[in-house]
């Protein structure tokens, strides 16, 4: 059966779209040109150089602010159907607010969008990929409820300015990474270590900000621009370490994927019921009078529920979950464990990783994650907005990356042909090597290598770029699936 499956079904459905992604802070550089405002990443890297490997920063990065035409040429050489990039909020609105619009910022993104369209490449645009204006952080950032209105103003401006040419929008990239790394563990910008409320306030306000942007699109732009808008979640697939841990694994999925999906994609809206109950009990046990997970009003539930045109997700890795042993340090959610769930996330020793040690490779997680989403939220159109593998050092010959892409795409095909999932696109992270947050430049995800010792930041094709290009051109993978 498996062999037959492979022979007949290794093709992607007609119209399936392939692309690659980057994000503003990770590639643009030009952190202080013209009237650009300061972002929380500018502030974070300049004031905490020790937080980043080798004290590196994104001041220049791949200098895509100047090299944008090369990025378009690369995307075109690969044959990408779309290029996913993000807008820098403080480059467009230097004060963070709508009173002050940068001509220079607007021109930059106009050139990029028009250049892509000239080559027949669709722009897929993320509004927020982590570079918040510092001015808004000074008011509490994602813990301040009013940020939803500042974000809505920004989204309105962006739809109005670029929406005549952009058809696919992602409001926020990986809310869980922002909330848990930025406000809980404090490992990334804005570097706030506040494990009681930080992540939950951020969680709620990101959902509201997203929903307000979605409703603005609906009300003012959809009828003329005919685009689609969604929210890009980071999904960690979690499996039980032992059969006894099955319930814990389900709670773990609700605590990660669920908190950022149920309010938007479920029929009822609001927090996942299991997490709402759990956090209520847990908070009371800790001596709080109300849940640390903030409530939604009825209006908020309605605002957020259904604010999507498709389900977008980034997926890289998987963990096994087990209860913490007495006195064991769980670390911070997510990736290491959860003090709330009293659980620890571990790896299977057979799972390899790339240069980024947290990104354990387990391709089956992709198919299982999609199956879980369909069980929870129904048969939505799914769009993989990131998936990628990292290498280190100078390396143009990258068989590991090729194998990674192929193995994950096989699982996407199994989801489509065996399970009947409506996955309509796949995005490789990343088009070019870039500033990999706290890992700096040493961890390289690019289909193209960038020479960071060269002031012109020369881009050179890796073998994986040729492989990906063949997949796109033929619309199939050479398949060696042995079991379904
Ligand atoms: C994503 N995980 O972050 C981001 O969207 C990119 O900016 C980043 O460069 C890329 O992945 C590679 O790291 C992630 O722990 C952070 O599963 C953490 C995880 C996944 C993605």
UniProtKB/TrEMBL annotation:
PROSITE patterns in the record: GLYCOSYL_HYDROL_F1_2
SUPFAM superfamilies on file: (Trans)glycosidases (SSF51445)
Superkingdom field: Eukaryota
Keyword set, alphabetical order: Glycoprotein, Glycosidase, Hydrolase
GO molecular function: beta-glucosidase activity
Protein family (similarity comment): Belongs to the glycosyl hydrolase 1 family.
Descriptive protein name: Myrosinase 1
Organism: Papilio xuthus (Asian swallowtail butterfly)
Lineage: Eukaryota, Metazoa, Ecdysozoa, Arthropoda, Hexapoda
């Amino acid at each position: 059966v498996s062999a037959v499956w492979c022979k007949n079904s290794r093709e992607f459905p007609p119209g399936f779209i392939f692309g690659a992604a980057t994000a503003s802070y990770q590639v643009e550089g030009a952190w202080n040109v013209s009237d650009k405002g300061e972002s929380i990443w500018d502030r974070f890297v300049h004031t905490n150089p020790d937080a980043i490997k080798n004290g590196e920063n994104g001041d220049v990065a791949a200098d895509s602010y100047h090299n944008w035409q090369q990025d378009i040429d690369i995307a075109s050489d690969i044959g990408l159907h779309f290029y996913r990039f993000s807008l820098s909020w403080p480059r467009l609105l230097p004060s963070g607010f709508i009173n002050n619009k940068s001509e220079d910022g607007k021109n930059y993104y106009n050139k990029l969008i028009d250049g892509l369209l000239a080559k027949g490449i669709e722009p897929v645009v993320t509004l927020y990929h982590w570079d918040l204006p510092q001015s808004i952080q000074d008011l509490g950032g994602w813990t301040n409820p009013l940020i939803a209105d500042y974000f809505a103003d920004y989204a309105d401006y962006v739809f109005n300015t670029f929406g005549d040419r952009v058809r696919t929008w992602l409001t926020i990239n990986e809310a869980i990474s922002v909330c848990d790394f930025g406000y809980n563990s404090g490992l990334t910008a804005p570097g706030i270590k506040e494990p009681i409320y930080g992540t939950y306030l951020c969680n709620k306000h990101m959902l509201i900000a997203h929903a307000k942007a979605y409703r603005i699109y609906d009300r003012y732009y959809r009828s003329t621009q005919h685009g689609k808008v969604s929210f890009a979640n980071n999904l960690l697939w979690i499996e039980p370490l032992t059969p006894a841990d099955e319930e814990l694994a389900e709670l773990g999925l609700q605590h990660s994927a669920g908190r950022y999906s149920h309010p938007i994609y479920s029929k009822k809206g609001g927090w996942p019921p299991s997490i709402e109950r759990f956090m209520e009990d847990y908070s009371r046990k800790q001596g709080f009078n109300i849940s640390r997970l903030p409530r939604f009003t009825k209006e908020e539930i309605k605002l957020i529920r259904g604010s999507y045109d498709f389900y977008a997700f980034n997926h890289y890795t998987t963990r096994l979950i087990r209860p913490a042993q007495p006195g064991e340090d769980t670390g911070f959610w997510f990736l290491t464990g959860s003090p709330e769930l009293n659980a620890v996330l571990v790896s299977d020793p057979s799972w390899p990783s790339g240069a980024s040690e947290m990104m354990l490779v387990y391709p089956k997680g992709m198919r299982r994650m999609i199956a879980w989403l369909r069980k929870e939220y129904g048969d939505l159109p799914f769009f993989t907005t990131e998936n990628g593998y990292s290498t280190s050092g100078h390396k143009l010959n990258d068989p590991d990356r090729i194998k990674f892409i192929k193995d994950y795409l096989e699982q996407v095909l199994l989801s489509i042909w065996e399970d009947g999932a409506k996955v309509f696109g796949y995005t490789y992270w990343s088009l070019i090597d870039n500033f990999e947050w706290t890992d700096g430049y040493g961890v390289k995800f690019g289909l193209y290598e960038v020479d960071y010792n060269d002031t012109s930041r020369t881009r050179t094709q890796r073998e994986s770029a040729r492989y990906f290009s063949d997949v796109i051109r033929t619309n199939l993978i050479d398949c060696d699936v042995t079991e379904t």
